[in-house]
Design goal:
The structure is a homotrimer of 321-residue chains. Chain A is α/β, with parallel strands linked by helices and 321 residues long. Chain A has 2 domains: 142 residues, Rossmann fold (3-Layer(aba) Sandwich), CATH 3.40.50; 153 residues, Rossmann fold. Chain A is built from 13 helices and 9 strands. In chain A, helix 2 links the parallel strand 1 and strand 2. The longest helix of chain A is centred in the C-terminal third of the chain and has 20 residues. The first copy, chain A, is globular. The C terminus of chain A is likely disordered. Chains in contact: A-B, A-C, B-C. The interface between A and B is medium-sized, with 25 and 28 residues.
């Protein structure tokens, strides 16, 4: 099957979604990230891999946090980074998305990191750019957020060593979450035998079982015996809507408290993509507790983004070095 | 005649306007840009010419696109770039323009790239700064946009090899266009024998013939036999005003369609400074057609801006190297 | 007494406030800045001291000017700089200040430059971050602005050579000024024998004498015989409030005119932290006059910030080099 993310030889050309990527590619990224994790502990946290490359952070939707992680990753690879918040500029002048992309491409861009409120925007851009330009999806609508899923896989492997014997629960607003969608694809691709989603009926997509997950509406049942608990962020805008009764109600049933976490395995790790709503989807005692690996996710996220960028820009920098 | 852009020895000190620059300076910039165009095709797209220099993008008027081209150009010259959108900061604290400039100068700025809504702002700044600081006008009011005109000349020379035998038409809202004004000065300085401006009477400045151009109000007449068609952007704010009947009406008479373009020479090139209003001043079949060199203009724009910056910062880097 | 800014060995770990810092630390910073002042006059204005370090400009309150000086200082030290204007991002997503800091720390930040509207914000962050992260207070509420005070001390030493025989007057809105508070601590720490504050009763803090200053409400009396006049910025928002009758009234009594300045020593220097309100707290003839050293303050500010950053990041770079 044709995969627009891969070259005919099977190398990574764009990173748009986890769906359809072979396990070997995921492991290649995770392994490369392991090398870069060591770089971050050096006195000089830089490598020359992307020297002279121009990387455009093309954010059609504001996200300082995600943009910052890509900016740091690119700078540690010695790239030149240009930040573009596009809402306020060309788009308001009536230029189309693809005209904007064509123009930036004509400036000899090497890579676009794209965040967009519309699902499919990164795919559209990837299908449009020339053969020397690489596209990374940094979140598109409700569709995908592949680097987040990859850093989550990196975190799981770091703490659990392997994927083949794990039970993983994803908890919360799965319906609106591009993070959850990418995590599910990554976990199933990596052969995690049991992936669960837990949440109220209004926040679980219909037919999600087709993706290879089990659905739970009860936290205690869903968390029983799991090795990994991944909490999702509850968007503020959902809380006042028809989908949820109230913040307090949500926290009572789906907020991760020490009591609920006790139903997971005693060595279970707790993850969250951030930013957290303390007291809404997670209790501070859990967020700051010994089982939380939330800040490690952030650290690993830099290494994983460096890995993706360096693989896209130069498939085999080591042999070239 | 005293020209504030030139040193007593006739070297370029600031780039404020094309008007009054000798042809030799324009050719010097175009020739230097040819060297930098090759840099952009290298694996590492950087040269050390401006290492350790501090370049301030001083944008009093928002323009992500123009700012980005200068930022890329400066970074490829290894300069340190500081982006300042000044509306929202010092100006709102009641500091005057020249106090802002004095302060940034005191931070040992080497170069200011200035975009301002008022005509003459770049000149004012250039007349105020110390002898070691260079100013580039990145667009001031309706007055001038010299780097845009230079990249247009570069594009014309690239495709037409020489200027002495050309007919060039500039089409659209000449009245409000700093781009058109700079293009006319550049074309006449470079000895283009026939420069035409085409547009409705309400959008052509009175007495524009004094600049050495012929005025046409009819597209078919104006495009007949030309080698180069330069379309201008129609500002959205004009469309609802008293100057124009409607977008559709404008497109009917002055929008560049394949049918109208057929009146130009068959090897004519089509240019546009961007961002385009498709379906207003230009038909997509032309914008994306074989005669369009619009994206090449963007590419050449980086090389031309590198050339201007490197000439200002160090008149003879090659002999110094 | 425990000082959170110092290591147990007495080295500078954070720069949060001048209060409590030993004179030796202040002199160490001023001496280091002298070295960096020379760097700024080099052809290539860069040194490698902070290569590969990640410095975050964490501005919870907008200040292009101050942010720019830190950005330039960090880039001249070869650091990677990430600018974060935090109002518009994570904070609006409901993330707490310390969660934001934890996240950025997890990205292996080396240094935070913090500007915040709340007094104590930088202290809070410094007390929270890990042992390898350094915090610089770039202004917190009405509390402190230590790098401004240090560059003022540098300026005074540059022009007056020593501190032990000086009379210094600080004029204006001392009540709301973090700059004034830091200046008073710096001047008294450096053994300036006479520090005066001058202003209307409504803008002088009660009991300010306890800090070791003399209070004057009359400009002529207060300026008599002083070596240094430090003007403070009058915040626009004060002018319409109950604290002040009117701008004109304020200028009449406390605006620094040539006539009032004549009461100071004939070789007195005039300083201002900027941005100035000409015609409110200072007359243009003074601001631009021969006694004004206001732009030198800006120049020295870069060197002083480079000194602080380099001392925090590596206490003894010379022995390491």
């Amino acid at each position: 099957m044709f995969n627009p993310q891969l070259t005919p030889e099977g190398h990574l050309k764009h990173l748009l979604t986890i769906e359809g990527l072979p396990p070997a590619i995921l492991f290649q990224i995770l392994d490369r990230a392991t090398e870069f994790e060591a770089v971050a502990r050096q006195e000089v946290k830089k490598v020359p891999h992307l020297q002279g490359k121009s990387i455009f952070n093309l954010f059609f939707e504001a996200s300082t946090r995600t943009r910052t992680t890509f900016e740091i990753a690119a700078k540690r690879l010695s790239a030149d980074v240009i930040n573009l918040n596009v809402n306020s500029s060309s788009q308001s002048k009536g230029e189309t998305l693809l005209d904007t992309v064509d123009n930036l491409s004509a400036m000899q861009a090497d890579m676009f990191v794209v965040r967009h409120a519309e699902s499919g925007a990164a795919h559209l851009i990837a299908s449009h750019v020339g053969p020397d330009i690489h596209v990374i999806n940094a979140g598109d609508g409700r569709h995908a957020h592949p680097t987040q899923a990859l850093l989550d896989m990196y975190t799981i492997r770091h703490f659990k060593k392997r994927f083949e014997n794990l039970r993983v629960a994803i908890v919360g607003d799965v319906l609106h979450s591009r993070v959850a969608r990418s995590q599910i694809h990554a976990l199933t691709t990596l052969q995690v035998p049991e992936v669960r989603v837990i949440g109220p009926k209004t926040l679980i997509p219909r037919n999600v079982e087709r993706l290879g997950v089990r659905v739970y509406h009860d936290m205690v049942q869903g968390l029983k015996g799991v090795d990994v608990v991944i909490m999702l962020r509850l968007q503020n805008e959902r809380m006042n809507g028809a989908l949820l009764p109230s913040r307090d109600e949500y926290f009572k049933y789906y907020g991760l408290t020490p009591a609920k976490l006790a139903h997971a395995r005693s060595d279970a790790i707790v993850m969250h993509p951030g930013p957290m709503n303390r007291g809404v989807e997670i209790h501070s005692d859990v967020a700051d507790g010994v089982q939380s690996v939330i800040l490690k996710q952030v650290t690993f996220g830099i290494a994983v983004r460096m890995a993706v960028m360096s693989l896209l820009a130069a498939p085999m920098p080591h042999s070239a070095a």
